[in-house]
Amino acid sequence: MSKSENQKPTNFKFVFQTGANRTLRNYNFKKALEVILNSESDRECIKIVFLDTGNVWAYSKSAVNAFLNGELLYEELEERYQCDNVYRNTETVIAENRTSYYPGNLWCKKEDHLVLVDDDDYIITEYSNLFEVVN
Q: What span, in angstroms and rounded, lies between the C-alpha atoms of 101 and 104?
């Protein structure tokens, strides 16, 4: 989705940590994010599905806030969070830097590897049976 396309009305499904989801129809991207931030503050969003294209993004509240505040470009958000799907690790993952990531962390699957959804750490690991898709 290009910069101009992110301003066009589209349909989104937001998936929450509880497994619940909310569909927003005919919203531009920025307005949809504002609605979720303002009306779903009691639930943690973890995934966005662009229903018109099938694109999937991991959801990062701090990155969304940075985007809405003009501190992060749409293209930067797209590059970091668009993925094949969002996964959780079901067992502890030990990164190359020897940091342990306990079960439950969110990861973006991009081709044959996963990227940790974290604003402080940029960790990449190979996709394996230690991960399950977030529905």
A: 8
Judgement on whether residues 9 and 61 belong to the same structural domain of the protein: yes
pLDDT in tens, 17-40: 999 999 999 999 999 999 999 998
| Structural domain containing residue 116 | 85-133
- C-beta separation of 81 from 60 below 8 A: yes
Q: Are 28 and 8 in contact (CB under 8 A)?
A: yes
**Residue 27, φ and ψ in degrees, nearest 5:** -115, 145
Same domain? For 69 and 89 the reply is no
- What is the number of other CB atoms lying within 10 angstroms of the CB of residue 54? 7
Residue type, 59: Y
